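Run log // design_07
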């Protein structure tokens, strides 16, 4: 192992993986819808940010890449949260007889699935505060 990962970092990785697995398990046949594609990208970038959090980024180039990856992650997270679901998936779930989710269930699902990414972005923002003072210098 190249770096020591704290125990809480491992828990966040497991939580992130379980959230991704739950989304992937429900949307296997719609993998290339825009909202699902944004979800895949968001989880991949979030995992990369968390992995890079435990490394010392000594080069200015790596620090700038880390800050750019954080900005990209925030943009993909916002797109993932606010892109509408595809109409085809909604129609298929209604045809299967599944009752629509209530607002409380939707909110709870959003909080549980979005919280590990928000924690990761908070950690990345905390780490990149020193880098932002030197942003743009190579």
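design_07 sequence
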């Amino acid at each position: 192992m190249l770096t020591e990962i704290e125990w809480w970092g491992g828990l966040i990785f497991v939580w992130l993986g379980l959230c991704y697995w739950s989304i992937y398990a429900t949307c296997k046949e719609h993998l290339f819808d825009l909202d699902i594609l944004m979800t895949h990208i968001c989880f991949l970038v979030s995992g990369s940010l968390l992995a890079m959090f435990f490394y010392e980024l000594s080069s200015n180039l790596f620090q700038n890449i880390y800050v750019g990856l954080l900005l990209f992650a925030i943009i993909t997270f916002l797109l993932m949260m606010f892109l509408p679901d595809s109409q085809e998936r909604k129609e298929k779930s209604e045809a299967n007889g599944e009752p629509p989710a209530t607002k409380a269930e939707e909110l709870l699902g959003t909080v549980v699935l979005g919280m590990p990414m928000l924690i990761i972005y908070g950690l990345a923002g905390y780490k990149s505060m020193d880098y932002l003072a030197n942003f743009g210098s190579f």
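DSSP finds five helices and no strands in the chain.
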